[in-house]
Amino acid sequence: MLDRNFQTSSDTKLGNRAMSKEVQAACEILGLETLSDRASLRTGYKQMVKQWHPDRFHNNEEMEQVAVAKTQRINLAYRLLLETLEKADPAIRNGNGSRKHSSENSRHQYDWQTYSDGFPNQDVSEFFLNSSHIVSAGYDKYKKILYLKFLGDEIYLYYDVPGFIFDHLLKASSAGKYALKFIYNRFRYRKFAPLIRR
Is 100 helix (H, G, I), strand (E, B) or coil? Predict the structure, then answer.
């Protein structure tokens, strides 16, 4: 749940409409003054994930735990704001008045695709990706296991994956293309969750 104690400004807007306190708090968590479109939301999300990635604090156990908690809040805020944009007008959603049918018209359209939070290992943080078929990724740096969640709530575990692969996946402009080239069929893997059949 988002921290309701965040200081918020009363004039924060979504397009021309005042935002709820929860949406305001989510914007502040991601360092956004307003919620205008997916591109700016994605930029804010990536910046905060980079700043608070738990691996940055692996030499300080206390700060690493703080980073894990921060990352969880960042992900919750990101999901909430994506859902808010999905309910907004197309002009607000895409920033130009027209619907997009690109990679951004992806898994994150929550109204048509269900999913479950997190990964089998609850200590692994979930990072949402910009992809038409990969929902999110997580990484266990101690066991070198990469977690990928796909449409339909499928989760695959990839073994002996170096940490830099996970970092590059998060930074990739197309997570799907990166995974196809550098992850799929390159690492031993197993399926954790069964595909939800329609």
Answer: coil
